[in-house]
Design a protein that fits this description.
Residues 160-169 have a biased composition (Polar residues). By secondary structure, the protein is α/β, with parallel strands linked by helices. The protein has a single domain (2-242), classed as 3-Layer(aba) Sandwich (Rossmann fold), CATH 3.40.50.410. Helix content is 49%, strand content 21%. The termini are far apart.
Length: 246
Amino acid sequence: MQGRSMKSTRIASRLFALSCLLIQAAITKAGAPEPVAVELVLAVDTSISVNAGEYRLQMHGIANAFRSPEILDIISRQPGGVAVTLVHWSLGSLNHQAVGWHHLHDFATTTAFANLVETAPRQGAGRGTSIADAIYYSVKLIEGNTYEGKSRKIDISGDPRSNSGSPPQSARDIAVARNITVNGLTIPDGDRQLVDYYRAYVIGGPDAFVLTVGRDRDFTTAMRLKLERELNIFLSSNARRCGTAC
């Protein structure tokens, strides 16, 4: 059975790689992509382990994080701005791009995206969770958009371990091989080792990290801190190079 599972994983990986090549060929034919500082997929767990109130809490928290003065300032100072999309994930066949790609570069564009996130209807509430399929889906969105980021990132947030599809690390490794960093935000819900699971099998790439937040804690604060760390990388590196001269 283990050999069959490994073979299925190899076949899925090959098919995924082929689909990405076809997407890249189509983009090349369509024209040069628009340069941005960061491409970011916010992939939020919408499986049945997340109830309606918790779903709204997550959407409200993400939206308010983008509305915060700290994130608005970071985005406005990014060279080329930031391209962001919102994904709802559970099982592979139910994954859904809840809010399409948006190019954020100022107060108006960022708050407009935040408003769409806050009002996004819930979709893809499956009975299982496949972190690997969430990563595969997110990689395809990055490979298939019209942007070219200096940094490319997937932000996986959820409360379960993967219980369906390929092992998360197989998808994680493919993402990293394509210069895409995978970060995590865990909502343990009784699983004290969930953050360790994410560290071992989910996150990867340059400066990859995972944060954790309890259901009774401030999701807005957790998301703001996460976005600050994900989006501030070029501003921090520029400051180190420039010192007080910039």
